Amino acid sequence: MDLLPDVWRQDYWLPPGVTWKDMDHLADSDRPQPLDLLIALPLALGFVALRFVFERFFAPPMGRCLGVRNRLQVTAAPSPKLESFYTKRSRQPTQSEIVSLMSLCGKTQRQIETWFRCRRNQDRPCQTKKFGEAAWRFFFYITAFVAGLACLVDRPWFWDRSECWRKYPVQPMERAHYWYYMLELGFYGSLLLRISVDIKRKDFKEQVIHHLATIFLLSFSYCANYIRIGTLVMLLHDSSDILLESAKMFNYGTGWRKTCDTLFVVFAGVFLVTRLVIFPSKIIHTTLVLSMEVFEPFVGYYLFNTLLMVLQALHIFWAGLILRMVYKFLKGKLEKDERSDEESEAEEEEEDKGGEENVDRDGDYCWERSKDTLNSKLSMLTNSCVLNNLTNHRASVADRMRKAQ
């Protein structure tokens, strides 16, 4: 029972020399209250509902305008035994498991491997789903960025970072900044609620850590009245996310390669500058160094900066992925997002080949088109060899006739 009061000890949340009574100088509407965070839950559920409407009614026509089309997929032949193994055991059976499945189902190794490859491709997200997710995030980020910029551009701390700590923590909170915080908190809460059904990417674990760290950072900074520096952190992050999601949208479309490449290059530059230069040199420097000119370190100071360091570590991780993409782009081999869904590149290639495969009446796959192509090439090669031999033979006969004369 005594644990809850200990959580709100003033030496945890307030700098030395400041008490909760000092915070009473602020009106209730100007003072961040921990109970205010409860509004984030209905906002998160509201975002989930709004996203459903957006992806159902608005994203499809946008996708058609950009030429988003789903790939043709070959459906795996019905096989209850293989389906049971796929859903309950593994999506990628080992060699020994394939051998046991061969005897169990009466199929060849190639048929088993082909069935599992085709079944995995069926579970891969379609282009329209990817586009819908990217479009929703783009819609939110651009709205949040414009709204955040509008409510910050005329504030003194937007231009002078030392203003973030003037009279801290007794700083009145404006309603615009309150809603800016709550909407961002609700949005990241909705991402966490939907993460199990969203497209699973290679950095799934890092995404979970990012969402949790962001929610905890927003919640803590709100309660500790780090509103001013918190709004700058949110605005800085939204600026590059807009470009990332817009590049994805054009990437999923048809005929927009140059636009996608241009947006990607701009995004890479903005991300590297904002996350690896401005964020550590301006934001973290402000919270670590400039804040010490106003107050001495306390528990909240260490916790807030630790969370910022976690974000910075994630920035470095994602910067590595982006630099890999830049390297491929410069080599002319940029084909997919490094954060693409979990199917390997080999399986992507197999899926493309799968579109050229035919299915016989028993559901087994054959490669008649590949055989026809191979036979055609062999026929051309044979004809070429026969013609060359005939030409050489005629030349040698003519040679002998000239010598005889």
From TrEMBL:
Residues 69-126 form the Homeobox domain. Residues 71-127 bind DNA. Keywords: DNA-binding, Endoplasmic reticulum, Homeobox, Lipid biosynthesis, Lipid metabolism, Membrane, Nucleus, Transferase, Transmembrane, Transmembrane helix. GO terms for cellular component: endoplasmic reticulum membrane; nucleus. Residues 338-364 are annotated as: Disordered. Pfam families: TRAM_LAG1_CLN8. Residues 129-331 form the TLC domain. It catalyses: sphinganine + octadecanoyl-CoA = N-(octadecanoyl)-sphinganine + CoA + H(+). Residues 340-354 have a biased composition (Acidic residues). It comes from Seriola lalandi dorsalis. The chain crosses the membrane at residues 37-54, 138-158, 178-197, 262-279, 299-323. GO terms for molecular function: DNA binding; sphingosine N-acyltransferase activity. InterPro entries: HD (IPR001356), Homeodomain-like_sf (IPR009057), Lag1/Lac1-like (IPR016439), TLC-dom (IPR006634). It is found in: Endoplasmic reticulum membrane; Nucleus. Coiled coil: none annotated. Residues 355-364 have a biased composition (Basic and acidic residues). One of its GO terms (biological process) is ceramide biosynthetic process. Pathway: Sphingolipid metabolism; Lipid metabolism; sphingolipid metabolism. This is Ceramide synthase 4. It is a multi-pass membrane protein.
